[in-house]
Amino acid sequence: AAGIAAFIARARLVEPRGLVSLPEAVDPATVLLEPDDVIIIPYISQTVVIAGEVELPQTVIWTAGDARDYVAMAGGFTRLANRADTLVIHPDGSTQRGGDVRSGDRILVPPKAPTQLLTLIRDITQIFAQVGIVGATVF
Fold first, then answer.
1. For residue 18, which of 34, 2, 1 has the smallest C-alpha distance?
2. What's the rounded mean pLDDT across residues 20-48?
């Protein structure tokens, strides 16, 4: 639960970028700009960032491979990793679940959400603790 809380705390610090990514199929000449719009052509990094629930979060030099290859480079998934929701975030802001990784991408492995069983165990433990405190106070 602490890992999820830390992940949520970090996520709250991220400010939305207001980014609109143009798919390669769109002709940029057909996009209408509004006042104060800014066009940014991102620098394509030769690295890939691997973060989240991996054993050794790090930045590595890009080589052809998929998200699982890069997670393996980072020591593999932690026991708290939500493997199915591994995200590949491209420099243009678009995302995909797993799959091929390109130069400049970021890989984010989120934590598993707590299961209902863990929530139930936590609630029962809190109830017993409160009953114990009340019992100790009465006697």
1. 34
2. 80
pLDDT, tens digit, 9 for 90 and up, residues 113-127: 766 656 666 677 777
- The CA–CA distances, whole Å, from 95 to 27, 82, 86 equal 21, 16, 10
> What pLDDT digit, counting tens, does each position of 12-31 carry?
776 666 666 677 777 878 88
pLDDT over 60 (residue 134):
no
Q: Residue 66: beta bridge partners?
A: 100
- Selected from 3.10.560.10, 3.40.630.30, 1.10.10.10, 3.40.50.150, the CATH number assigned to the domain covering 2-24+40-113 reads 3.10.560.10
* Largest pairwise CA distance in the chain: 80
